[in-house]
Amino acid sequence: MSTRVRSSGTARSPIQWAALAVGAVFLLVGVLGFIPGVTTDYDSLRWAGHRSHAQLFGIFTVSVLHNVVHLVFGILGLLAATGAAAARTFLLGGGVIYLALWLYGLLVDEHSDANFVPLDDADNWLHLGLGLGMIALGLILPRRPKTTTTTGTLADDR
């Protein structure tokens, strides 16, 4: 009887899968932000600022800048998924950025010109959840692919 540990050299680690999933969701959200119907009040979509009244799913205020940021984060996530260290950096760094954006959203008046993203209460709660979630994934997920152990006789391997 023999024991073998199998791991594909090209297998993604859990942290890479997380970066891939987060990146894919950001990419999808960025695209959806440009689709009328999915984004309500699409005709009020502005480049940036609090005067954009377009809302993704009728909940989250978006602007062209906001959508472009989602697209960029999505592409970065997909690229980061190619390596465990890059995936960890993407999740931790992105999480810190989203926590900073959450804090910024709490401090800036929604109707001021400083609200350039634009941000509102729904966005703020989402940014808090994204920031904490991305940091948690970056800290707890393994950086190595899962290995499988099989037990059997050499005859079983033919």
Q: How would you characterize the overall build of this protein?
A:
The chain is mainly alpha-helical. The chain has one domain. Helix content is 51%, strand content 10%. The chain is built from four helices and five strands. Strand 3 and strand 4 form a beta hairpin. The chain is globular, with a radius of gyration of 20 Å. The protein starts with a strand and ends in a 6-residue tail after the last strand. The mean pLDDT is 88.
Mind sketching the topology for me?
Layout: E1 2-6, H1 14-32, E2 39-40, E3 55-56, E4 60-61, H2 64-80, H3 84-107, H4 121-140, E5 148-152
Antiparallel strand pairs: 1-5, 2-3, 3-4
Helix pairs in contact: 1-2, 1-3, 2-3, 3-4
Number of helices: 4
Query: Largest sheet at a glance?
Result: 3 strands, antiparallel
Structural domain tally: 1
Order of helices and strands: EHEEEHHHE
**Spatial strand order of the main sheet:** 2-3-4
- Rg from alpha-carbon coordinates: 20 Å
What's the count of strands? 5
Low-confidence stretches: none
What is the average per-residue confidence, as pLDDT, rounded to a whole number?
A: 88
Structural class: mainly alpha
What is the first-to-last residue Cα distance?
Answer: 13 Å
Share in helix = 40-55%
The amount of beta strand, in percent, is: 5-15%
Inertia-based shape = globular
